[in-house]
Every structure is written in structure tokens, then in C-alpha cells.
Amino acid sequence: MAHENDSFIREVNEQIRSERLSNFWGRYGAVVIGAAILIVLASAGAGIYEYWSNSRASASGDQFANALKLASEGKNDEALKALSDLETAGHGSYPVLAKFRAATLFAQKGDTAGAVAAFTAIGNDTSAPQIFRDIAKVRAAWLLVDNGTYEQVSAQAEALSDDAQPLRNSAREALGLAAYKAGNFAQAKQWFELITGDAQAPRNVAQRAQIMLDNIAASGKAA
Question: 198: exposed, middle or buried (C-beta count within 10 Å: 0-12, 13-18, 19+)?
């Protein structure tokens, strides 16, 4: 009898579960199917977007490589045209890289003003990664050491010279050289001492700073 009761109870439980499942599916089946379709479409969409994105990045990479090849062959005008196209229609980081390479080509062509303007534009571009912006400002500062005033160099580099900045010693060296060129030896000495006093300064930068300090000391003009 107990066995029969157990069998009856199991049958009742199974029937209740079956009815509940039937009722649930009748009420929510369309929703479940719709959700499943959305998941499949979302997964497919992500895959399609990733393929599309990678394809665009690959095409931009090919364009960038072609521009570099033109530059290496001395075809600067053609290279600048290719880089300009990449700046406006490129994908990923390639537009910023194209701007960097174009600015460098301006400098190589002797168009210092054009190069400074190009690097300054990158430095002021809030959509560009911060490290790219900082490097561009340092490059502009270095060009201005020989082709501008101390104030122009300072406008580009001084904000990058404090202890928390990764490019601080490159910025300090540009500032020190600009001050030295302007005849402000005391100020130049301060910048070079910041470099030699920084344990993390690259060895070659620290060595150049020490040479400048020795020259300033020998001149006796910063006493």
C-alpha cells in the first residue's frame, strides 16, 4: 500500500509540474523565445562589429604603411597627402599616428612653423590619448628651442616638467636649453639641476644636463 501511495504521489507531483510548465510556457513562451533570439542577434552583431572594426583598422594600417613607404622614398608631398587622407578617414589610433608622422615630415622638409603648428594641434586635441598629447607638446617645445622664444617653449613644456609627469626630464631639458639660449643662465641652471637631481632621469639626459651645468659654472654667469 505504501508503495502504491508513493507512486500516486509521484504521479500527482509530475502532473502538477507538467501543468505549471504548460501554463508558464503558454504565458511566457513568446517572451523566452524573443529573449533567446535577441541574445543570438546580439552575439552575431558583436561578431560582425568586431570583424568590421578589425577590417577597418587593417585597412588603415595598410594606408599608414604606404604613407611611410612614400616618405622613406623621399616622396614627401605624396606621403603628406596619404597621411592627410588617413587623418580624416582612418580608424583606431591611425589618425593620430598620421598627424604625428605628418608633423615630423613638415620638420624634415624645413617647415618648422608647420611642424610646430601640427604638434601643437595634437597637443590640444582632447580626443587624443593623453600620452600622445604630451609627446606632441614636448616635440613642439624642442622645435621651438632653436626657432622660438623661451616663453613659447615654456607654453608647451612647463606643465609637463613637474615630478609626476613621465616626460618631465625631456620637458626640463628643452626649458633649460631655451633659457640658456636666451641668456638666462640662472634659470637654465635650475632646470638642469632638476634633471641631475632626479634618480629616474635617463642616463644620457642626465649626462647632457651635467655638461650644461659645467658650462654654466665655467662661465660664471649664474653665480
Answer: middle
How far apart (Å, rounded) are the C-alpha atoms in residues 187 and 121? Answer: 28
Burial class of 195 by CB neighbour count within 10 A (0 to 12, 13 to 18, 19+): buried
SS (H, E, C) 95-157: HHHHHHHHHHHHHHCCCHHHHHHHHHHHHCCCCCCHHHHHHHHHHHHHHHHHHCCHHHHHHHH
The amino acid present at 177, given as its one-letter code, is L
Q: Say how far apart CA 204 and CA 212 lie, in whole Å.
A: 13
SS3 198: coil
Q: Which amino acid is at 109?
A: K
* pTM: predicted TM-score of the whole model, two decimal places: 0.67
The mean pLDDT values, 10 residues at a time, for the chain of 223 residues are: 47 49 49 46 46 55 71 74 71 76 85 93 89 91 94 96 94 95 94 96 94 90 66
